[in-house]
Write a structure and sequence with these properties.
The protein has about 475 residues and is of the alpha/beta class. The chain contains 21 helices and nine strands. It folds into four domains: about 5-110, DnaA, N-terminal domain (GMP Synthetase, Chain A, domain 3), CATH 3.30.300; about 155-300, Rossmann fold (3-Layer(aba) Sandwich); about 305-375, Helicase, Ruva Protein, domain 3 (Orthogonal Bundle); about 385-475, Chromosomal Replication Initiator Protein Dnaa, Chain: A, CATH 1.10.1750.10. Helix content is about 55%, strand content about 10%. The strands form two sheets. The protein has a five-stranded parallel β-sheet with strand order 6-7-8-5-9, with helices on both faces. It has a four-stranded mixed β-sheet with strand order 1-2-3-4. Helix 8 runs antiparallel to helix 9 (about 225-235). The structure holds adenosine-5'-diphosphate and magnesium ion.
Amino acid sequence: MNSTKTDVWKNCLSFIKDNIQPQAFKTWFEPIEVVKLSENVLSIQVPSKFFYEWLEEHYVTLLKSALVKQLGPEARLTYVIKMENTFGNKKAFTENIPSNYRDSVKPQNVSAPLTSKVHELKNPFVIPGIRNLEIESQLNPNYSFDNFLEGDSNRLARSAGLAVSNKPGGTSFNPLLIYGGVGLGKTHLAHAIGVEIKEKYPDKTVLYISAEKFTQQYIDSIKKNSRNDFIHFYQIIDILIIDDVQFFSGKSGTQDVFFHIFNHLHQNGKQVILTSDKAPVDMQDIEQRLLSRFKWGLSAELQSPDYETRISIVKNKLFRDGVEIENNIIEYVAKSIKTNIRELEGAIISLIAQSSFNKMEITIQLAQDIVNKFVKNTKREVSIDYIQKVVSEYFQMDISTLQSKTRKRHIVQARQLAMYFAKKFTKASLASIGSQIGKRDHATVLHACKTVDNLSFTDKQFRKYVEDLNQKLTV
Ligand code: ADP
Ligand code: MG
């Protein structure tokens, strides 16, 4: 019997491979290294204690059969556990495995090494009591590339997403960071990439998770003293998609753990896809080293869709729902709701719902009522308080200064601008605006509005103030 440890292990692996799912083989057997063979005892090295326990729990019979085939009925197996106690600084040592474990190829000597409780800690997605070896991708199949309509506003992000789907980990878009405002399709696109990869590469492990849930799992793992298991779980993912990473702001523990997981995945050619509601430069309370990682790949922005794209999104939605609406109504809705695709869809859904509940035809009148509700809802957020806050921040003064009785020119101008915008953006009366902005009367407010109108004609610098503030108040 002159076979080397490598041959023995190779033969074991090919036997095992024939008997389990390719994904499971890849996850649980490829990382194993063979260490030593003496007589009938084979030593293998596994990456962590968790790994060892998992093998014992799920594959002991298979391992036994494989080994007995190679080394005869007296075959035995020992494990060496390579623990990662600090990152990047690996220390291998032999775990003191109790003798009953060491004889694990004789199943009659093995006491059940795991309770299902320990299990539930390992894969944070596993529902207690349910054994689930395959990692569920958590993807929503309804979010696909097919129904992610293309337009100028999303072309870069969409095609980068497609490139990544064709060759996950194999492009320079790693990580791919998709950013943009609320309701512009970040989550949809992130899922679409995952769904597409799963279709093209069924053997790859894809995982979608929101940054919030990731944070929660991480906190739980600390409480349960299983931080390493948490990290290990994420390190075996091939394509990791984390949605809304701005949620990591100010959470240094989570950022730290993510940083290490990210590095591990990146070094091993795995793909990372992130979404955020801000560009990396605008992210606050995110550690510099993490921000610099975000910039390694590609940051692609989703912008507000142009009119044409809005029309096709609405038409597509109607088509999928099997509803027909006159073109002028579609155009009206697409013209009125500009900055948020979720709201655009919401308006269409209410339109359909209203008409079917009340057995009404979908008319332009109904469309106007519904759009008004959506548009008003966003307008209501601009209050006089908010306007004063924005204006005083813009001129770097306190609200109390803005409201004070002083005649200093720049303060007077700031106050007049606040009044002007209060008139423009709220339904408040002149008297009510006056009383809220420094206890002035309605005539003062009227005068302020006229002055702002005049100055924006005659004074270039002043016009810039008006434009800047207008923009700040309308986004
Ligand atoms: P975000 O995550 O950026 O807030 P979502 O991905 O949740 O936005 O998108 C909001 C809604 O708009 C979803 O229903 C999504 O399907 C839809 N949507 C966004 N972009 C597109 C697009 N390009 N084509 C079709 N539907 C879109
Ligand atoms: Mg989202």
